[in-house]
Every structure is written in structure tokens, then in C-alpha cells.
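Q:
My hope is that you can spare some time for a protein that puzzles me. I hope you can help me see how the letters and the C-alpha cells relate. Thank you; the sequence and its C-alpha cells follow:
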Amino acid sequence: MDINLVPATPEIVLAVFGLALLVIGAFVRKDAGALVSRLAFAGFGVTLALVCLMAGWTTVQEGLNGLFIDDAFARFAKILVLASAMIVLAMSESWFRRDDALQAEFPVLVVFAVVGMMVMVSANDLMAVYMGVELQSFALYILAAYQRTSAKSTEAGVKYFILGALASAVMLYGMSLVYGFAGTTHFAGIAHVAADGARPVGIVVGLVFVAAGFAFKVSAVPFHMWAPDVYEGAPTPITAFFAVAPKIAALALFARVMVDPFGPWIKDWQQVLLVLSILSMSLGAVAAIAQTNIKRLMAYSSIGHVGYALIGITAGTHDGIRGMLVYLAIYLVMNVATFALILSMRQGGQPVERLSDLAGLSRTAPWAAAAVTVLMFSMAGIPPLAGFFGKFYVFMAAIDAKLYTLAIIGVVTSVIGAFYYLRIVKIMYFDEVGTPLDEFTSRVNSSVLFGGSALVLLGFLGMDWLVTSAQFAGDALLKHAAAALF
């Protein structure tokens, strides 16, 4: 038995940080929330440095008796997850402190959720997948209901827990079917069974159940029903966290499980993912049009973006995985910058969430309105902004894989979805000012808003570097899948 802990060093370090923060939060009486939040930020920074420096991009290491793998694909996803957690944690402090609601529990739960996400993207066995998913989920259930005095937050937490528990049960049942018919939970062993040419119906059914469980975690249609209510009911900083880090981790896990153990059965799972992608893009484009709450609008927007990212996994090719990773990196920047604005929306010191509250922002805060306009154009996929390149790479991967219908539907839904992004621009520039928003006072939020819009605007200058990094990561995943068959 090879218990090699080196590949899991970043996860172990971050877990130790989390346990230490739990103790500090329990014993520090004065301003414990702020102290623990800053220490958690430092912990994420140390872990991010470890992920970047521990091994070269071409190195592949397995540990914990093959349950865990550290490769370029896992590192790319972990960098995105850690970066998003750091940014959201930094933006959250001023929001919670203003309402005197920053407790030590919040950063601790974020830390443990991120540990689960990192385990997810490095899983090399179905048991490791389940452990990572559940560690992430338990923390997220509590985060959704974090604001105990709010009925909406409590409702969001209960809804998310009930539906999440059901999804976990479905996923675990699928894993048990795969184990029962394949005789192993290790990815390489499942891949060997799949490559033998036999198609046990139990494994196919199990694969569908596993995909359904993952679809819930990424809020793909028709497993999306929790997202709008949880996004609206949870405190805004937690909604910002939900919108980026768990989505990135779950989509990376989705790609690894479909391509690595089940790669030889691409024709089976490709049909499932194709339907999920089409339904998610379509609902995300249409349902957001009627929304008046900006957090619910972002929920449906994220559902649509998940549909576009799933195109890359559906293709199942080098270009498809590369396109998905490029899309996730750009999605991270666009979303955290947009939530920097939402976190800054206050009237008379109270947070507001209606789209109409943005009316006249171009006259009260012209630079902020300009930055948001850039972000909305990018989310709509208008060239030469970064959002255009994200969609371009996944659409081209679909065309190269001869998934022409998927690519065409993606373009059409992208055009439809542009309506509600451009409507935000119209509200900011053309609607009459009612009660103006308070002046933006958080330097962190302003830096994220303007920095994110600058990256989106000038992203084409660094696109070659991003695409090359995503190519290395995608190649690592596919090479490991191919090596498992020999």
C-alpha cells in the first residue's frame, strides 16, 4: 500500500489552517471574525503558492494508494478555486462588518468548503469523489443558512440541504452500481472494464445517476431548481462564493470523471451531457429576462454559463477540455467583478438587490457604470472582450467534434441572453434616477470591479498565455486517461 501524502500537501496544509482557525475563533473574544478572515486569506495564499510551486506543469503524482492525483489539470482548477475564494473573502469582510455580522464561522466554513473542492478536482477514485463532494456540501449547506436572523437565508439553507441530500443519494447510488458491475471504484480499473468492449447495463445506469448528481452540483437544468432561491436568500457575499468556486470545482470534477474512467464510453455519456448543456443554455437565456432581482438574475446567468462550459466536456476532446478551462477562468473574472458591484449596492446604508436600484448609475458613479458595462458586454459574448473568447473556444470545440446542433443552439441562446445583460446597461444609462445608491466606500470592492473590467477589456493581450496553460492542463487529463488503459 503506497500512502504517499506529498501530492495532497496543499489540501493537508489548508485543512490544518482550518482546524487552527476553528480554535482561534473559539478562544478569541474581540473581533474574532475579522482576525479569522484575514488568517484564512493568508492560508489561501500559502496554499495557492504550494499548488504553483510544488511540482512542474508536466509532473503527475498519485498518492493515498491511488485515491488522489496531482496533475496539471488539478492544479489549474485549484488555482481558480483558491483565487476565487481569496477574492470573495476579501470582498466579504467590509459587507459583513458593516452589518455587524462577520463571525469566525464564515471564513472557517469557506476554508473547509475549499478543501473539499480541492479533493474533488484531484480525485482518482469514486470514494475520493464522494468524500470531496460531501466535505464541500456540508460547509455550503451551513453557509446558505449563515444569517440566522433572516427567514430568507434559513429557507435557502433548508432548500439547499434537502435537495443536496437527495442529489448526493442519487450520486452514491450510481457509484454503487458502477462498483457492483465493474468490481472497483478506482478510475483506472473502471476504464479497463469500459475498454474491454462489454457494456454492462448496470454501469451505464450508474453513470447516468452519477452524472445527475454532478448536474445538481453545477446547477445544470433540470437539476437547477435550488439555485435562484439560494442565490436570492443567502447573504450576498455567500452568493458570490456560490457563483464561482463550487461551480469551477464541480465542472472540473465532471470533466475528470467523464473523461478519465468513462472515456471509452463517450457515446453514452455524451448524449446525457448534450441534453444538459442545451437545456441549461436555453433556460438560462430565457428565464433571466423576467427577473427583477439582480441576484436571481445572476443565478439564471450562471445556469446559462454552466451550459456553455458543458459544451467543452460534451465534446470530450483536447480542444473541448481546453475550451472549458478557458471559459471557467474568464467566468471567474466576470462574476467576481460583477458581485463586487452587487456587494456595493446600498441605499441609506441598507443593501439593495433590485435591478431598478441601478437606475442612473452612469450619472452618480460614471466610472463604476462604465466598468459594469464592460462586464455585461463580456458576459453577452461581444468581441473583442474576454467573454467572446470563452464562448469562441467551446463553440469551435463543438464544431470540431461535429456537434453542430449544440454549437448552433449555443450561439442562438447567447444572442437571446444578451438582452438581459444589455438591459442592465440601459437601466444604468437611460432610466431616471430614483433613490441613488450610496457612494462606493469599499476599496477592495472597487479594486475588484475595476480590475476585473480591465482584465475583461484587455484580456485578449494575455489570451495566448491562458490558452496555453489550459492546453497543458487538458492534455494532462487526457494523457492520464489514455495511460490508464495500458
About this structure: Strands lie at 61-63, 68-70, 346-347, 350-351. The chain has one domain: 6-483.
